[in-house]
Specification:
Mean pLDDT: 84
Helix content: 40-55%
Structural class: alpha+beta
Oligomer: single chain
Number of strands: 6
Number of domains: 2
Order of helices and strands: EEHHHHHHEHHEHEHE
Strand order of the largest sheet: 3-6-4-5
Shape: globular
């Protein structure tokens, strides 16, 4: 579950899409940046914490819109999700207060999947500890709509990762509500056990050298070397052992400065995508983002003097895939 407002930056051209019965939404890098800035301004005011239902829901609508937009979804879903985020921020700005409930429309005719999860969310939101589960409940609802959209457009295989995210959010929301501290009654003092600390959100980055992952100049799953598979399998095991849930995994392919920049960038992106496919095939469920940094984020300072072989060895750290994992760590064993 995300607990801070992240900036959104993309390099995809603007697209205008009109969602059914809604005004045209002009999606572009500027549109996402402007809406993210609007949410940050609301949070900075001190009236709308990120754990609140309304602001969390606005953030999650914006996140799923951006996620699908970067995956080249040109259906009505990205603009409709962006518009839901915008509607909430405008209402918060106009009223100065956060509503206790907000509708969760099945935008783009999304299929209503998993009635059991919807029912669980309704019970949690109506429980005495609802205040401690607002953000988790809001994002679970959005992810269920996200999954329903994928199911309607492409099928169950594409919906499964988002259903898994929704399941994790619902389970965490139920736990948070059950352990939410109850206010003491002045007339009848009672001993209240301290609430457990909130689950820490962890962010860690693992860097794996391209030469350990792939044969030279290769990028496919069949080109993975035994060492690379072993490193990735070890990462899968760590995720299963250390994290209660993983929300985001960012994969960034890097290349050295040798060769043509356009070729190196394309190669590093394909390698990042292959790592994503491998992790997914091992049962890792998360919101993935892949990008190629090319040689723009060099980790070395190698002089151009000397032999070509020596320079290539020096530049080895630049040929890598960085894997950044964001998730909720498991509680330590008692």
């Amino acid at each position: 579950m995300r607990t801070i407002l992240w900036p959104l930056l993309i390099a995809i051209g603007p697209v205008t899409v009109t969602a059914a019965a809604e005004p045209a939404v002009h999606l572009s890098a500027e549109a996402y940046e402007a809406q993210q800035a609007a949410l940050k301004t609301l949070n900075d005011s001190g009236h709308f914490p990120v754990r609140s239902y309304a602001l969390a829901k606005a953030q999650c609508w914006l996140d799923v819109s951006f996620h699908e937009y970067t995956r080249n979804d040109r259906s009505a879903f990205p603009p409709a999700a962006w518009l839901e985020s915008h509607k909430i921020s405008e209402e918060l700005k106009a009223t100065g207060s956060s509503p206790s409930s907000l509708a969760t429309p099945l935008i783009n005719d999304a299929t209503r999947l998993r009635p059991d999860l919807w029912d669980s969310l309704a019970k949690t939101k109506g429980s005495a500890g609802a205040a401690c589960a607002e953000a988790l409940a809001a994002c679970a609802e959005v992810e269920l709509v996200h999954a329903g959209n994928e199911y309607r457009q492409i099928g169950w295989r594409h919906a499964k990762p988002y259903v898994q995210i929704a399941e994790d959010h619902v389970a965490a929301a139920v736990t948070a509500a059950e352990h939410c501290p109850r206010p003491e009654v002045a007339a009848t003092p009672v001993a209240v056990s301290p609430a457990p600390p909130p689950a820490p959100v962890e962010v860690e980055t693992v860097s794996i050298g391209a030469s350990a992952l792939f044969h030279f100049d290769k990028h496919g799953v069949n080109d993975l070397l035994p060492e690379g598979r072993a490193r990735l399998d070890a990462l899968v095991s760590r995720i299963a052992e250390h994290y209660a849930s993983v929300t985001d995994i960012q994969l960034v392919g890097h290349a050295d400065r040798l060769g043509k920049p356009a070729y190196n960038e394309a190669l590093s992106l394909e390698r990042a995508k292959t790592v994503q496919s491998y992790l997914e095939s091992r049962g890792v469920h998360a919101r993935f983002e892949t990008r190629a940094a090319g040689s723009s984020e060099s980790a070395t300072r190698c002089p151009d003097t000397g032999s070509r072989a020596k320079l290539r060895r020096c530049l080895q750290p630049d040929r890598r895939v960085d894997i950044t994992i964001t998730g909720v760590a498991k509680a330590p064993a008692p």
